[in-house]
Amino acid sequence: MLDKKAKQKIISKFKIHETDTGSSQVQIAILTEEIKQLTEHLKKHKHDHSSRRGLLKKVSERRRLLKYLQKEDKEAFNELAKALKLRIAKKMIEDEDARQKIEDEILAKQELKAEQAEEAENERAEAEDHKNKEDEE
Q1: N- or C-end of the chain: fewer Cβ atoms within 10 A?
Q2: How far, CA to CA in Å, does 116 sit from each of 53, 108, 110, 124?
Q3: At a CB cut-off of 8 Å and minimum separation 6, what does 26 contact?
Q4: So what's the pLDDT on residue 137?
Q5: Class for domain 1-85, per CATH?
Q6: Region 71-82: what's the mean pLDDT?
Q7: Per-residue pLDDT reduced to its tens digit, 87-127
Q8: Are 46 and 39 in contact (CB under 8 A)?
Q9: Is 86 exposed, middle or buried (0-12, 13-18, 19+ CB in 10 A)?
Q10: Within 10 Å of residue 118's Cβ, how many Cβ atoms?
Q11: Helix and strand element counts for the chain (H, E)
């Protein structure tokens, strides 16, 4: 658990505006520091399973906040990841890039199918018009 002074120092370093205490960036920075402290504690006390559970909760909460920040403000996400030296952020960026690539491929395939369907419809309409003209003659 962080003491008040350490928490205030983190808040002042990562705050977005003057009265900011709860933005995603601040929460992620605080969680990161708590995770570091718990990790050090667990290196000394390997059988402290309740602290291990708390660590896992904090890690998952930080991951959720990072995902949210990445989705809402990529630039702030990248700056924060760099400032906190987060390894997980690199993986999240790679995952997001892969997801975006797959999404783009799916959209391209859908557009191609739509174009093919439109061409087939135009050919069918032309064939029908041609048949109607022949019937009139």
Answers
A1: C
A2: 54, 12, 10, 12
A3: 10, 11, 14, 15, 16, 20
A4: 63
A5: mainly alpha
A6: 90
A7: 887 788 888 888 889 999 999 999 999 999 888 888 888 88
A8: no
A9: middle
A10: 10
A11: 5, 0
